[in-house]
Amino acid sequence: MVVDATGDLLTALSKAEKAEVVERLAQEIGDSWPGIEKTPGVVGGAACPTGWSGTVPSPGQGWAMDLSFDRFIPTAGTRRALALARAMATRSLGAPRLLVLCGPAGVGKTHLLRALLRHRTWDDPDARVAHATADEIVQHLIEAAQHGAGGSRSLGWDGADVVAVDDLHTLAGCPMAQKEVARLLRLALAEGARVVCAVGDPVARLGPLLASLRTAPGFASATLGPAADREVRHILACIAHREDARVGRRVLAFLAASAGGDVRRAAGALTSYSFRVSS
Question: Which of 23, 68, 71, 241 is the most buried (most CB within 10 A)?
């Protein structure tokens, strides 16, 4: 009864007043909804609702999950990145050998990294792929230096068909670390690997790293932009249909408007909502 009465009141409001109501509701729900977290080590982390008690995929399992190219729903801001990642995965003529994906959180960078790895291992079971986060590389280099070791071989990249590195933005403001990671990535390229990297904000503080990578052979970059509300709504509708979740249009519109272009956040909110409704 309360919901029906509220619906009658909303129909009498102007668009500006409705927008204010949505904003206030988003703030209230944002305080109670835990959001999304990422688990390190699985190509930058498995995005899932904070506090989720389910099993987190191990690195070997991560590529076999649902984060495939077929399940990546492109938007105006991600189509070019998808095309470049597909080209690298299939080794198409003119495909990049070094691909850098840039953009804010939740736009699909990690999805494309996983999709590329998954495609390579499924297309060629003998293909050797390697993955790490920037923090993991730096930590490994510190430990290797203490034991007098170093280079891409100490990272396990020797003979790799594809090397994927996520979260390079964590090196912002650390020029020495950026130069060393760039050296290792170029070394992997020289040894025959294809390299794909994901960089979140702030890109402006990664000058030494990006300056070195841009001069590497076969370099390409793509910036993934936040999705518009209508695009997020479309993506959520596709997810709901795929998962056979009964979610109304108003709920989808509200979740999309509350996400601020962050598809991962919107998908997490949809998962949380569906779970609560069904339980």
Answer: 68
Instruction: Provide the pLDDT for residue 58.
Output: 37
Assigned CATH for 59-223? 3.40.50.300
Q: What is the mean pLDDT of residues 110-125?
A: 90
* Average of per-residue pLDDT values in the chain: 79
Instruction: With beta carbons less than 8 A apart as the criterion, state whether 213 and 185 touch.
Output: yes
- pLDDT of 252 reads 93
How far apart CA 227 and CA 238 sit, in angstroms, is 15
Is the separation of the CB atoms in 263 and 108 below 8 Å? yes
pTM of the model: 0.73
pLDDT surpassing 70 at residue 68:
yes
pLDDT (tens digit, 9 = 90+) per residue, 34-43? 343 444 433 3
- Indicate the residue type of 22: V
Quick one: what percent of the chain has pLDDT higher than 70? 73
